Amino acid sequence: MTEGEVRAYYKNMGMALPYDVVKVIEEAIPDRERAEKVIRALEEGLGAVREEAKAQKEVVKAEIKEELTRELVTKADLAELKNELNLEIASVREDMARLEGEIKLVRVWLKVLAVIMLAGFTLFNPGFHQVLKTIIAHIGA
Prior knowledge:
Elements: H1 3-12, H2 19-28, H3 32-71, H4 75-123, H5 126-140
Helix pairs in contact: 2-3
């Protein structure tokens, strides 16, 4: 048989063995009927292996998907994290506003204390009393 005839024959029989393999089997087993049985047996074995590989492929895909689902962040996870961050940011902003109010109050107290210190230094300074007497004397005169 020619290569084309062999390919066509085995293709019609639903065989998927490469031509080279079929040719080696036919050369090793001169009886065509026995060679076809060996080829069919190999095909059935390969078919079973293919089916098992497909089944394992689905199992492996499911395992990988499960692993990725556990390890990767989902949109829901991101949305939850975003909400948590927004709440934390709002809390920090409230704290900042409260602290800004406290800082303003401290500034006012510092100014009041500075005025009191200046008044104290001025009022209890003997030189200031002399200047004040001179100003009063000139106004009253």
